């Protein structure tokens, strides 16, 4: 009897996780746009699971910052605001600055950084935004892993999916996909050279430069929406 109960709990948890993975993939790939409404009935039907499983999956994605729950309106895909972008890039500056400093001291750094950077270069050539974002995040995560700092790794994990959305938005507004390569060259070089202080500085400069561009872009979009609102009401 106990084994059956435990088995049932494991199965339910696996379904929750699988449903969350499927919805997360749709969000981070751009298949579900920011602001898109999510209904438990439609998701349950599409994924062939119960509404309870979908509800648990949505709670997981809510904790990751990928969706929002609106009073009396249900669930929707989170929209990245200029405030979100500012908070994420300033937080990343601190976390990734420390990570780069520690990674530069790790003798194993070349074995992770070089393959990750090569994958980013290959992704940029495809011009596929999802591949670019995946490779971009993988490179930054490699630096975090090389820091060999469990609490830093855990903290980064809390915002990882939000960082993915942030990177997707940031890379989407680049004039050319190839710019994602040159934007990372100084950071990668300083880590590989083992220069801890330069690596920390490069990581902070990298996140700040890209973050400020994205923040200004989103601020401009928000102003345009605000200016258009009175016209729509009229």
Automatic annotation (TrEMBL):
Keywords: DNA-binding, Transcription, Transcription regulation. PROSITE patterns: HTH_GNTR. SMART domains: FCD (SM00895), HTH_GNTR (SM00345). Pfam families: FCD, GntR. GO terms for molecular function: DNA binding; DNA-binding transcription factor activity. Residues 13-80 form the HTH gntR-type domain. This is Transcriptional regulator, GntR family. It comes from Bradyrhizobium canariense.
């Amino acid at each position: 009897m106990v084994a059956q109960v435990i088995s049932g709990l494991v199965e339910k948890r696996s379904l929750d996780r699988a449903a969350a993975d499927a919805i997360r993939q749709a969000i981070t790939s751009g298949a579900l746009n920011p602001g898109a409404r999510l209904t438990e009935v439609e998701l349950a039907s599409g994924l062939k699971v119960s509404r309870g499983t979908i509800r648990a999956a949505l709670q997981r994605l809510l904790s990751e910052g990928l969706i929002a729950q609106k009073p009396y309106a249900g669930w929707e895909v989170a929209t990245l605001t200029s405030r979100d972008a500012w908070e994420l890039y300033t937080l990343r500056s601190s976390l990734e600055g420390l990570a780069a400093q520690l990674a530069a001291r790790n003798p194993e750094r070349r074995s992770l950084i070089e393959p990750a950077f090569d994958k980013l270069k290959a992704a940029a050539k495809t011009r596929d935004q999802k591949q670019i974002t995946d490779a971009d995040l993988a490179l930054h995560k490699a630096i975090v892993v090389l820091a060999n700092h469990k609490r830093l790794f855990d903290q980064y994990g809390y915002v990882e999916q939000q960082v993915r959305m942030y990177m997707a938005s940031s890379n989407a507004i680049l004039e050319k996909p190839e710019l994602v390569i040159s934007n990372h060259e100084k950071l990668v070089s300083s880590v590989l050279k083992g220069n801890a202080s330069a690596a920390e500085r490069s990581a902070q400069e990298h996140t700040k430069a890209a973050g400020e561009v994205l923040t200004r872009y989103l601020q401009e979009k928000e102003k345009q929406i605000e200016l258009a609102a009175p016209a729509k009401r009229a």
